[in-house]
Amino acid sequence: MKEKILMMLKQNKDEFLSGEKISHEFGVSRSAIWKYMNALKEEGYIIESIPRKGYRLISSPDILTYGEIEEYLITDFIGRNIYYFDSVSSTNIKAKEIAPKEQEGTIIIAEEQTKGKGRLGRNWTSPKGKGIWMSIILKPKVDPTKVAKITLIGAAAVNQGLKDIGINSYIKWPNDIVINGKKVCGILTEMSCELNMINYCIMGMGINVNLDKDDFDEELSKKATSLKTITGNTVDRKKLLAYILNHFEELYIPFKEKGDISKTIEISKDNSILIGKEVRIIRGELEKVGRVLDIDEEGQLIVEYENGKVEEIFSGEVSVRGIEGYI
Amino acid sequence: MKEKILMMLKQNKDEFLSGEKISHEFGVSRSAIWKYMNALKEEGYIIESIPRKGYRLISSPDILTYGEIEEYLITDFIGRNIYYFDSVSSTNIKAKEIAPKEQEGTIIIAEEQTKGKGRLGRNWTSPKGKGIWMSIILKPKVDPTKVAKITLIGAAAVNQGLKDIGINSYIKWPNDIVINGKKVCGILTEMSCELNMINYCIMGMGINVNLDKDDFDEELSKKATSLKTITGNTVDRKKLLAYILNHFEELYIPFKEKGDISKTIEISKDNSILIGKEVRIIRGELEKVGRVLDIDEEGQLIVEYENGKVEEIFSGEVSVRGIEGYI
Predict the structure, then answer these.
(1) What is the enclosing helix (H) or strand (E) of B152?
(2) Alpha-carbon distance B184 to A132, whole Å?
(3) CA–CA separation, A187 vs A147, rounded Å?
(4) Which chain B residues touch A191 with a CB distance below 8 Å?
(5) How many Å apart are CA A101 and CA A99, to the nearest integer?
(6) How far apart are CA A11 and CA A301, in angstroms?
């Protein structure tokens, strides 16, 4: 109900909405409306209220609630059920707790993660209100070995969402988004499965949106940056989040229904930072140097080694690093 | 401490142990000992206590606590930390709750499961005190694609544990144990993982030990039976459980350390009910008839179809059924 009233306020931004009109529209009492208005004010909404005229929305806070992103969302099921938190240990941990009983497309969003996690147990800096820290719950009826493809879909969706707000980025196969040679987004896909059935899959995304330079320590600032640092401007987190979810659903549906990731592969190739580059391929203690030739239709990285041997690399099996520096 | 006192009572079954001696051995007060004795009595231990002579263990209850299986256990880490419950929804569900923070080899055992689960969400009948309903928490540092091999290790361990108590059984690749054409044990392996790292793996085992005929409904009794029904005798659950854990650890260590499952494959082949048989291979809606030729060194089932084509089947990818009936 709170969200419905908020939506009505947003649709009537230039005029006063009388309590009577709201009461009539939703069939709730005037005193209930007054309580909802106070709840909205507590969340950071600035609402003017004048006796006998009614209520008017002056401004909305910079928060990633469903009420704030709904107007940009064109999805069917991705992001239509959002659990929003001010602070959590990690959105993936929270998502794993609720995933068994939630429907596909449910999202956990937090303004802050106190124990944000990257791949292989690494930390992920997630300061309050400055990033998009979220996890999407998915339940595709595919073999667990196919789940690596979902990471590619996620990376492609972030790349396309950034493009929608005018920011060009590169995809570092399989799970990072890179601008100016530094990481702006990482994806951590986890799953719970039986031998031939996925119970659920959690796609965690950390996007460094409005972090300032001093949010990164010295070591991290060599490898990571934020959209704000790159563009010099504060970026609209709400639009970016919604656009990413829109692209994600568009790319995910053909995968879920037919195993088709052709559009994702096209985006992955067009925006790849690895194709054509010399890279180090790291498998545990072993390291080999090769050149990335392509990404194939299954999403595998095709690498040619110095001895001319060509290998198809299955996502996740190895780490790929540039010859010099991070990329 | 309770377990240490129990162990001492067991080691001195034919004589009275004075409170003074126990007190001296463990450095606890006489009144504390009295409390531990009462706790043991509540668990079903029958303990004689005579003033000025002391305590004597008359009999132990039929429960699968650590105190009861310890004397048969020769493992290093499998089953050395046991969470024992009178009743749980499912040991796999319980195991998933605690797995993130538990060490490898920790086991959940319950006398009863109210929502015992088989593969693909099927039910598993688990009446109180009549079976071995347990889940082992494992954290092997191997690629998630290798986890199917752990199911084969589990099946081989059950087969060998049964042999130790004089019961011959067949392994129905990949996850069932069969006697007289009916199922006596099923294994449900689940895992939580990232792309190239297992967070944890849960191996759930349900063994129909002392179930009576009327524990199975009519439909189930066509497919499943119990060791008691087969042998005509009540089977010692404690020994069987410990022997299975002993074999499991012996077969699991080479896998964990070197990826070596050669001994498991040997057992799987020697005791296979499928090799040489005609089977139906079921993939979703599709069904094909073929003959099982072998199990290869990677644990894959080798099947030859009627048209002469030979296929290697990866565990879990398909269901295998006999031409007539269950097997």
Answers:
(1) helix B148-164
(2) 50
(3) 13
(4) 192-193
(5) 5
(6) 47
Cβ distance of B193 and A191 shorter than 8 Å? yes
Residue ranges per domain, chain B?
Answer: 2-59, 66-270, 278-322
Q: Could you give the CA distance from residue B233 to residue B165 in angstroms, rounded to a whole number?
A: 12
What dihedral do alpha carbons A13, A17, A21, A26 form, nearest 10°?
A: 50
Q: B194 and A174: CB-CB below 8 Å? A: no
A chain contacts of residue B143, beta-carbon cutoff 8 Å: 317
Rounded to 5 degrees, φ, ψ at A283 are: -120, 95
d(C-alpha B107, C-alpha B64), whole Å: 11
Q: Which CATH class is domain A66-270?
A: alpha beta
Element (H, E) at B132: strand B131-138
Question: For each of chain A's 327 residues, which pLDDT tens digit applies?
Answer: 888 899 899 988 888 999 888 988 898 898 899 999 999 999 999 999 998 899 999 999 999 999 999 999 999 999 999 999 999 999 999 999 999 999 999 999 999 999 988 776 778 889 999 999 999 999 999 888 888 899 999 999 999 999 999 999 999 999 999 999 999 999 999 999 987 789 999 999 999 999 999 999 888 888 999 999 999 999 999 999 999 999 999 999 999 999 999 999 999 999 999 999 998 888 777 888 999 999 999 999 999 998 999 999 887 666 777 776 555
How much is the pTM? 0.83
| 3-state DSSP assignment of residue A302 | strand
Under CATH, which architecture does the B278-322 domain have? Answer: Roll (2.30)
Contacts of B79 (CB under 8 A, 6+ apart): B66, B69, B73, B105, B107, B136, B242, B245, B249
**Chain A residues with CB-CB distance to B317 below 8 A:** 143, 196
DSSP letter (8 states) at residue B316: T
Please give the CATH number for the structural domain made up of B2-59.
Answer: 1.10.10.10
Chain A: residue nearest B192 by CA? Answer: A192
- Asked if the interface predicted TM-score (ipTM) of this complex is over 0.90, the answer is no
